[in-house]
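Lab channel / #folding
Pinned by the channel admin:
"Please post every new chain as: sequence first, then the structure tokens as a reply. Keep commentary short and put observations after the output so the thread stays searchable."

First post following the new format, from NK:
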Amino acid sequence: MWSFFSRDPTKDFPYDVGEPVPELEDRSVWTLHKGKKRGTQDEVSIFLFDVQKNSETLFDIAKASLKRLKTTRHPSLLHYLDSCETEKFLYIATEYVEPLSTHLECMRLEGQQKDLFLAWGVFQITRALSFLNNDGNMRHNNVCLYSVFVTLAGEWKLGGFEFLTTQGHETTNPIPIKILPALEIYDPPEKNDSVKLKSATKCSSDMWGLGCLIWEAFNGPLKNQPALKTVDNIPKQLCTLYCELVSANPASRPNPADIITRCRKLGGYFKNDLIDTMLFLEEIQIKDKAEKGKFFSSLSSHLDNFPENVCVHKILPQLLTAFHYGDAGSAVLAPMFKLGKLLEDPDYQKQIVPCVVKLFASNDRTTRSRLLQQLDQFIMHLQNSTVNDQIFPQVVNGFLDTNAIIREQTVKSIVHLASKLNYNNLNVEVLRHFARLQSKDDQGGIRTNTTVCLGKIAAHLHPQIRQKVLVSAFVRSTRDPFPPARQAGVLALAATQQYFLLSEVANRVLPALCPLTIDPEKQVRDAAFRTIRGFLGKLEKVSEDPSLKEGMEADVHTATPSLSNAAATWAGWAVTAVTAKFYRSHSDTTRVQHSTKSALSKPGSLEQPSSSSMSTTTSSVTSMTSLEHSESASDYDPEHWDMAAWGEIDSSGGTGGSAGSSSAQAAPGLAALDEDDWDNEEWGTLQEQPSAKADLVSPSETWNNSQWTDPIVNSANATFVRSTAGSRLEHRPAAHQNSNDSLGGWEDGEFEPIEENADENNASKMDELRRKREERKLQRQREMEARRSARAQGPMKLGTKIVTAPPPF
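Reply from TO:
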């Protein structure tokens, strides 16, 4: 029984004492050690007092400081965890910290980051002293560089309670005698002056210590009190306050609460982005949703100026807490993903990935859209099993969403997910939805982007599936009534040419491309001519040297093909134009123009034809040296071109010809798209519309994601088309610049505008187009003749009034 009471108390102390930390040897009764908690191995700090080596007086001081630390709690005071007393040692376990002196010596911060860090630290110590002096009615009496500690999150914590006293219980001299000689340099001047001592206030001694701390934060350890007169390194915003703090008259030293009030005003030393952010996060639970949304939307722009340790260990945990237990919603995603880049992969898996999985299960369309747009920022941290089992089942629902924006973002996301998807998800599920979208979706931009995305993920497809799908899909796209979709199909054929057998090129690809040489769109014709010449050159080389055939078809059955062979260099222009770009649809454009509207909360059938104006974007296929500004064969009016708003084939599509009615009958149902039936008929047939009068539809309201969407590759040759007639698209060739792309010897000068002549097979269509073109020419001729007749009357002199004769009675 007696052995129970005589057991070692350290067995109940769940912390292991590690190596000592220097700096506190002669400036504290404690020695600081690193420590770890048993079981979890969490890092802590251990303050150790050697009972046998120190006097009874120091032991009493150590026990008194332990009592104060244990019973006094504040966010800016050192956080107590546990303690233990034995015959040999006295232990105190606190949160993991290091002395401020050590932290400043090793600090690598410079410029604005250093200024913000020091301001935040001084603010925290001032706030701690305000709590002790005003709320706790206590004096610390030991404020200096060696009583302040810094956490992993960059927070300054006030410790060193060895000489703390309570108001009303002190002796005739309220400033205690410090037994440690190294600390006497921080004693205020009134300690030895009984006259000045009478005017001392409850906070005057601590304010003197705060002044010493500010001087040491900017200059290093204090060697003697006269050095306090040097203010060269102290910020100008702080100089006036600093001089008041180190004033010889104790009555003139300000109260810490007044210091905070003064310096938090506009232009004050404590008024900066870091302190504003930290104070908001401390009170985030009592903020309303509008305040949180405004805060999170502006937070990302400030993070680059904040110290990294503050971002990782303080701001990020607060954001995660706000996400899990608050109503921060999708607004927290941008700063959370930005800070996630600073984490090591194990920490990312532990902190960010669970949030991502949870967010993908959300039914909120805004959240899902933002996640899909930001996928490139975190996809590299996701494990393949996580993507296939938890992420993809949620993403695939977006293919069937009634909202066009969600569908187009889902198509884009597959580019980032493809490398991590398993065989079934990529080669069966994704392609099944792609086939349906390309044939039945009523948004031309989505059909276009489906083709572009398929070209991008071609390298990840299984060789057998790839050989069955690509030609059929791209050939069908060339018959789409939406011009950018036809152009994307041509470019995709060129970009993925290394996956085609030469027999396919001759029997399927070239016959599909030839009709596009008389396409109403100049850019589609240009793409078709270049691609045809490339394929013909490839066939010609093999004809001259049959031994090249094996090299030309080397990548067809290869799981990880590349564009390294010489035969593929001619398609370099298509790779840069298609596989690195997405078509920007009307839904993207409208989102930028109407930033205050949101379409994500509306049901799917919200697309309405626009009768006033419609805009589409097309991309240049090539970098032509010069393109003649001739009229298109289609019913396009060049006067309605907006040359200042040239878009990109980069973003996704939301506007296009309504091909659903014409293609729905030709394309089979979703269940009928089996893996073994990827032929040209299975991909459906999109009949070419003779005139560009297909109704273009777009969401009536859109969601603004201009700060989330990053164009993948800029296209100097992209064209923005704006029409004032809802039933017509305007076309005007773009003025292209010279290109240095290696096109395998296909010179730009060899391409000339195509003169469209009617023949017996398409006489009705071409006659109609020609008639309209002639009518417009006659109209312009009449206008020019009217102007000439007006000028024939002679020049009008400056200032002459035009007098109109009154009408006859």
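NK: The chain has 29 helices and 14 strands.
TO: also worth noting, The chain has a mean pLDDT of 75.
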